[in-house]
Fold:
Amino acid sequence: MQDRVSSTNPDNEQSEETVMQDWTKDYMFGYQFLNGCNPVMITKCVNLPKNFPVTHEMVKGFLKTGVTLQEELKAGNIYIADYKILDGVPTSSSQRYLAAPICLLYKDRLDQIVPIAIQLSQNRNGETSPIFVPSDNEYDWMLAKMWVKSADFIVHQLVTHLLKTHLISEVFEMAMYRQLSAVHSVYKLLKPHIRFTIAINAAAREKLFNEGGIFSQFSSLDRAGMNTVMQSAMKTLTYESLCFPEAIKARGMEDLPKYYYRDDGMKIWEAINRFVSAVVKIYYDSDEAVQKDAEIQEFVKDVSFGMNNSGKFQKSLKTREDLSEYLTVVIFTSSAQHAAVNFGQFEWYGWIPNSPSTMRKPPPEQKGQVDMKYIKESLPDRGCSSLVLGTVWALSQFQKNELFLGTYPDMCFTEQPVKEAIKTFQMKLHEVTNNIKSRNEGLTMEYCYLSPDKIPNSVAI
Structure:
């Protein structure tokens, strides 16, 4: 792998300052569910979970005047982030703690997402797991939000980032090498999007996620705990969940304002899909041609095997449209999705209280017993914090000679129609980049993670 240099960006520096200044504010807490490092946890809430007994009386002071919680649920203004995947996961030591919180969020009259209720466990017992609300003691509410962000840090790193971009991309890469010949059109199409992935994953296994590795040093989990979380995530992983439009729809997030991850992601998905469809039509003149391509069918079957979840991934493709969507998933996951959940890590995690990697004191079981001293003693210590800072800084850097989406310097295709398709793809990406730049000029905090000129072709860091 190449040397890496900082993706120096004065706008990012400005955002980091804003995070440090406003991290305790509810608007900043809510904003990160939409456009932070982990923009995939928030889901529209139609019915409250039975183990999260929030009542109208608890939250009425934070809703629009004269509107009930039930009415806001029906209106689609209530959202939820549930970290049940962490419930019961063992911690690495008795001095490090982990929670499985549930957070209720509200779209207010300013179209901001703000928290209105937090429960720090999956247990509905109010005596040991109270529901915190914004009108509680300042330190109670601050600590409750920190616990949510700490859980979010763990899920982001292990599931959203490691499993659903790095490891999934490796499955696609291994299947490609095993089943597609180097002269196959799909091999040529995917080759730029698997660059360095196996190498970076090998380094991650050796240094970050091994027993006693960096992640276990700054988080609450050892190797066994990490495996528990990712095995749970694999049970719900489906092919459909990797299709960006379907994933957004499944969470009920189609219409929420200021969700730039969704808006930019849809543009990138559509651009990739249009490009891939054009290439597929050049090499396959019918659906039958796809069905008869033994290499493609074995490639898909191999991916299904590699996911260890064969019932939720196709074992064959029947149409050109199916093939186009499948290849869009491969390219989008290894480029845009990884960029969206990776390159903002220093910006959002560089200020440790905003997203603590672990907590040194247990979650409070009663209200009114927390002060700033307790909060400071709950946060990671200096050594742990330094390790987090170094890690997220390194992970947020581009390669010295990065190849961004739409860049194909090693031209594998010789056919003129494919070259024209690539040019059209590049023009579309340039258009999207300009649109995002214009949009960002009107924002206090720019959202750049899915700007095509900042999306590497592959998972390489």
Observations:
- DSSP finds 18 helices and seven strands in the chain.
- The domain at 4-25+154-454 is CATH 1.20.245.10 (Lipoxygenase-1; domain 5).
- Residues 99 and 147 are 7 Å apart (CA to CA).
